[in-house]
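Standup notes, structure subgroup. Blocker cleared on the nicotinamide-adenine-dinucleotide input:
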Amino acid sequence: MTAIDVDKNWQLLINGEWIDPAEGTYDVIDPATTQVVGHAPEASVEQALDAAAAARAAATVWKKTPPAERAEMIDRLADEVAARCADWVPTVQAETGALQRITETLQVGGPAVDRFRYYAKPIDLDESLAPVPVEKGPLGPAGLMSARVKLQPVGVVAAITPYNFPITNVAGKIAPALAAGCTTVIKPAPQDPLGIFLLGEAVAAAGFPAGVVNIVNGAGPEVPAALVETKDVDMISFTGSSPVGSRIMENGAKTMKRLLMELGGKGAAIVTDDADIGAAAQAIATVWGFHSGQICTAPTRVIAHHDVYDQLVETLKTFSGFMAIGDPKDPGTIVGPVITELHRDRVEAFIKAGTDAGATLVCGGERPDFGGYYVAPTLLADCTPDMHVVREEAFGPVIVVMSCDDDDQAVSLANDSDYGLYSYVFSGDTNRAYRIAQQLETGNVGLNVIQPHMEAPFGGFKMSGVGRDRGKWGIEAYSEIQSINWIG
Ligand code: NAD
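Run returned:
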């Protein structure tokens, strides 16, 4: 494992070449220490457009490259990431503020390598329709109409991504996009972009043709906004907040962008009166402090049957006592910092809005004094559906709890949200949990389980997004559907 080279000259990857950023650099900060991790390259709008033009020029060749050859290159990329990722740990740990063990297992290698491997095979989703007889008419002769339905690559995809799990997120986008035959421009989040340039080094080593994968960066909205507006980009694959997602939809309308939008979440966790409360609380608590709550799929809106409400709140409070806050590099730490000072202030204001509105502060709320941007795991009980803390996401270690009288009320409280990404049902009766799950307006539901099936389609209802990826849906997301018709 190498140490962090704070003075490394990070460059943009455009058309297969490493290029100096036209707008200089800005400092990337370690949220645990507030020290500088590196100087991130700041592209100009012109460089963003150069990257899009390079991806456009490469699109014809990449589309014609046989799927088996594309798959071979994606597999080589998986090899390169697997071989290099241990060296990426110090930089990615410091810029994301993630725990050391989370960085080693989930940030740099594992899931990203898995996603490249999964799509490193030709996936044939084309199909033939059953021939149908047609009569002679004004449009042509009688005969048997046949059609083949083919998936064609969308073209150039701009992947605009959030902070939290930068490499995993980008891999989840470019792996299916490249496999589908698309070329890409990556624009990582400004807070933790350095790992994406390390990923770029693996891309270069894997031997992709120039322009197939490009990486630009910028601290402000200008660079990603240029990618949204240019005609050289056909599709925006965006993960981030719902307000920015709305802006992208609006600005992309002029060029009729294809959109995959993975947005915010405010996951409900319904706990029925027959649930194993210890197991439910443990599952909820696992994600409560995980990456300091900066997880879009976290069950942060707990809806508990009144018979088990007090026991659940008490058990969650007990779990908070085991969630050691501190230096993410310390193996005993469970909860590290949130990403920036601004975000720490936002989460603190969010908690205050809850207590001001009458929520009971069961634990947390104070600012831990470790020098970085820390927020203690916070539990707000006695919440009501109208409260800001119930309606909006904190993207921090904050859980709100509401009481319900029966399953119908639980469902209606759960659905009383603008969001609909990932919800959970904890019940001792799987049939009952399944019945509840089918009524939830969310793209994904976990029954007595937090971890997802990685090949199941992923995405949100309502303000949580548009479209689905993962598994075969990943290929569909980056494809246009074409029908070829003939008569015989
Ligand atoms: P954000 O929306 O602030 O930023 C995301 C990206 O959008 C960044 O790369 C940013 O530079 C870019 N951006 C900013 N303004 C833009 C504009 N005008 N046009 C185009 N792009 C623009 O999100 P964030 O703070 O980085 O991440 C947190 C959010 O992401 C939370 O809402 C969280 O729920 C969501 N998220 C969702 C998922 C999911 O899979 N659904 C996963 C992780 C995070």
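Discussed briefly. The longest helix spans residues 67-96.
Next: hand off to the docking folks.
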